[in-house]
Every structure is written in C-alpha cells, then in structure tokens.
Amino acid sequence: MSTRWARFARGWIAAVVSVFVALCSHLLAGGDSPGLPGILLCLAFAGMICIALSGRALSTPRLTIAVGASQFLFHGVFGMLGAAPMSISGGHMDMNPQLTMSAQPMLSPLPLAAADSGMAMPGWMWFAHAVAAVITVLALRFGERAFWQLLALASPLLRMLLALARPVRVSTPPASVPAADAMLPPRLVVLSTHRHRGPPALAAL
After folding, report:
1. Which of 90, 144, 184, 187 lies deepest, with the highest CB count within 10 Å?
2. 3-state secondary structure 2-53
3. pLDDT tens column, 8-40
4. Phi and psi of 45, rounded to 5°?
5. How many CB atoms lie within 10 A of CB 96?
6. Is 135 a member of any domain?
7. Nearest-angstrom CA–CA distance, 63 and 138
8. What is the domain range of residue 53?
9. In a domain, 39, yes or no
C-alpha cells in the first residue's frame, strides 16, 4: 500500500477515526458539542494533516504526530464552536435625505469567556484527549496490520470465488442440414420395387 491513492486513503481513515474518538472523549469530559459544521471543519483540517504525514510506510512516530496534532486541533475548534453564538443588539437607520446609518453593536462577554475556556485545557480534558490519541494510534496501527493479514488469508478464497464467477463460454452445436437437402451417393439410394417390374422372362418366350 505505497501508492498515492493509498496514502490518500490511509490519511482520510486516520482523520475520520481521530475525529470520532476525539469527539467522543471531548463530550465525555464535559465539553460542548461543536455541531455538524465544526465536525466537518475538524475533519477537513485533520484530513490534510494526516495525508501530509502519512508516509509510504505506516510508521508509528508519524502516526502519533498526526493524531496528537489532530487532538489538539479538535479541542480548540470544539471549544470555540461549542460556545454560545455572539449576540448583536442595537442598530438603527435614520431615514433622512443624507441616508446616514448608525449602529451600536453590543457584544456579550460570554462567548469570549467560553472561547478562552475552550482553548485552556484543564487536566481532565488533557487526560481525555491523551486517552483518545492512544486509542486512535493503537486502532490505526494494529487495525491496518490486522486488515492486511485478514486480506492475505482470505485471498485464496477470493480468487476461488472470482474463478467461479467467471462467465463460461457455451459452445453452440452445428446447424443441422434438412433431410431434403442432403445429398446421398447413388448406391445408398433405396430404389422402389415397382421401378423395373415387368412380365417374367419365361412367359415372354
């Protein structure tokens, strides 16, 4: 599995597993849910990181770096996107001939505090993401090896099934010639008994 498409597939598999395990650990540790847009954003960044770090051979250091970076990114994005959205109040338009518009946005301090708390990882959150990283590395490391071992064991059975599924060419019998069109030699033609019938030779004398 050393082609470009293999690296692409390995990187995306690592990204999907990392996002799933990180999301589960983040929610179990008491973090806020980022929603579907946040999950897709994390998946996009994790996919790029994992594809860039996936070498031609599956190495544990590169896989650990990719998973660790993904976990740190996940926590930051989950913490920022899981906070309450910013509330903007105020703003009015003066309907005068000069069309002047004034706005006074009021930003609540709650989202900023939530974002700061999302970026600052307490000890239990560090532990949760560390456990998620270890689970992800073990799953990707031994999961791929187990997959290729099972594929090697099942390859004879797959080849046999493919051989049985091949289409068999059916030979068509030769076209039969009608009896009326068959040409028989003269000696094989059965002559009628009435063809040369006549009076007996003695009676003619």
Report:
1. 144
2. CCHHHHHHHHHHHHHHHHHHHHHHHHHCCCCCCHHHHHHHHHHHHHHHHHHH
3. 877 788 778 878 888 888 788 777 777 788 788
4. -65, -40
5. 7
6. yes
7. 10
8. 4-85+113-164
9. yes
